[in-house]
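ARCHIVE CARD
CATEGORY: sequence design from structure
SOURCE FIELD: tokenized fold
FIELD CONTENT:
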């Protein structure tokens, strides 16, 4: 199982300039999250319609007639940080070792 790190938004991240966001290559995670949300909203001006009730649409599938319905945008994203080295976790035996071998 990999160690998952849950960000609160106040962590400061530094990224290479090649993959940076519009605000630069060093920023708080909260700014990255907001940038992603802003991008979605700017590409879907009627974002509330798209994500809540859907927008009227028609679909044509091969061999079938046009079908009317609603097209709804369901967005789910997760940003993960994968450390190069895993943090050291104390062994449950460390306490026992220190009791058996006092120094």
């Amino acid at each position: 199982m990999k160690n998952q790190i849950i960000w609160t938004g106040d962590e400061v991240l530094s990224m290479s300039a090649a993959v940076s966001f519009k605000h630069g290559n060093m920023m708080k995670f909260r700014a990255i999250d907001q940038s992603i949300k802003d991008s979605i909203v700017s590409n879907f001006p009627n974002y509330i319609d798209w994500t809540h009730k859907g927008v009227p649409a028609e679909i044509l599938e091969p061999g079938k007639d046009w079908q009317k319905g609603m097209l709804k945008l369901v967005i789910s994203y997760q940003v993960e940080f994968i450390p190069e080295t895993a943090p050291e976790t104390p062994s449950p035996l460390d306490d026992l070792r220190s009791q058996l071998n006092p120094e």
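CARD ANNOTATION: The mean pLDDT is 78. The radius of gyration is 24 Å.
SHELF: design records, drawer C
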